Every structure is written in C-alpha cells, then in structure tokens.
Amino acid sequence: VALFRLHGSPAEEPHLLLECDSSVLDSIQKHLKLYKIRRKVTIAPCPELSLWAVIPGEQPGDSSSLPKCADPALLLTPDPRAEVMGWRLIAKKGANLSEIIPGSQVGDIQDYHRHRYKQGIPEGVKDLPPGVALPLESNLAFMNGISFTKGCYIGQELTARTHHMGVIRKRLLPVTFPEPLPAPGIPEGADILTESGKRAGKFRAGGGELGIALLRLAHANEPLCINLGGDRVKLKATTPQWWPKAAAK
C-alpha cells in the first residue's frame, strides 16, 4: 500500500490516493470505512485511473529531469520505497505515455516484477501475506513504510521495541536460482535449507530465476537449497545495495 497526496497545500481540501494490491481492493475499502466513524470522508475506487512504474535505465538520471504533470488527476512522483524503483505514474486510462515521458519504452508487467525482485522489493499479498509478514522483517523501515513517532497502530509497541533494540534475525532478501527450475517452479512458502539441512527460511514468491525469500540472516551467506519433489534446487541470497550499510548485521 502506498499513499499519495493530491492536494497542493494544507489549505486545500485534502485528497489522498491510496495504491494497493488489486486483489484486496474490496477488503481495504471495508477496513477503511470501519474506521471512518462519522467523519465526512469519502472512500471510493478510481477505475478511471491507471498505474505505471517508470523504471530508470542502467544509469538513472536525476528525478528533476522528468516532466512535472499539471493535471491534478495525474501524478508523477519518485517511488516512495527506494530510489532504485524509479517513479510512480498515475494517469487517466488511455493517456498517451509517450507524451508524458518522451523517449520512454513500454515494457510488460514481468519486466517490472523482475526489476523489483532483483532489488528485493516486496509488493502485494504474495510477498507480504496479511497476518504473516512482520513489518521489520519485511524491510518496511527501509522503505518509508513505518513511522516510529506516530501512534497508535496495531503492533506499534512490538515494532518500536524491536527496532530500537536492533535485534532482527530474519529479513526478506532477493534470491537467484543459478540453474533452470523444474516445472512448475518453486511453490510459495517452500522451506529453504542450508547444506547441512537446517531451516534457513521460506520462499515467498518469484518469477523465473529470481525471487524473494524470508531468510535468517545467520544463514543468508551460506549455500542454500530447496528440496522439490526429490530434486535439490540451489539458490543464492544477496543483500541489496540500497539498504543501509548496517542493515544485514
């Protein structure tokens, strides 16, 4: 989930745009309406808008070089999670993207997922299963996803205490499979083991030779594998360069 402010100043009537996994659109609306509590707040989906990810090339330029959009129903802003994810573009359906960002090339959704898996960026209910994924283990503190000064929210005390103690034993990490995978690929939630057979974590989701997994940091640099139907599938975890330097300790 990402929040974007559409109003230009605090004096204007506030308009917020919430980006979410489309598979949980109904449940998120019900959840927000539950906490509206007689406030004059309108909560409605925006089917007239489309969402795009603008991914930088091998040598990304300054975000200030991107065009600034004047239409209040169209937003172009740096991805709030990490600089390596480029920008988020929200436009009216049917908009000509080549006019908004001259020289851009339209990829497909798999290009986007491959890019974020390489960077270890989780997104949606597959990567962050509700009721299972913990915010600190999911690296949300690195991605502007947690406020340690705002209260109150469910799990705030545990999250804040764990953050300040600095003891986080598991994290989501990008993983790669050096060899072709047997069909139909790695099932979500598959156990990841060390060479000696110790449990190192669980595979969350992925595509092709790339994926994301929740791993114990103590085993993250060891040779890892998944037992799949009698086959031993090797994989390797890496620490993203965009993380804070001390994050993997």
UniProtKB/TrEMBL annotation:
| Gene Ontology CC annotations of this record | mitochondrial matrix
Localization: Mitochondrion
- Stored InterPro entries: CAF17_C, TrmE/GcvT-like, YgfZ/GCV_T_CS, YgfZ/GcvT
Query: A Gene Ontology biological process annotation?
Result: iron-sulfur cluster assembly
Note whether Mitochondrion occurs among the keywords: yes
Q: What is its main location?
A: mitochondrion
Query: A GO molecular function for this record?
Result: transferase activity
- Report if keyword Zinc is assigned: no
Tree of life domain: Eukaryota
Assigned keywords, A-Z: Mitochondrion, Transferase, Transit peptide
Q: Which residues form the CAF17 C-terminal domain?
A: 169-245
Q: Which PANTHER family match?
A: TRANSFERASE CAF17, MITOCHONDRIAL-RELATED
**Protein name per UniProt:** CAF17 transferase
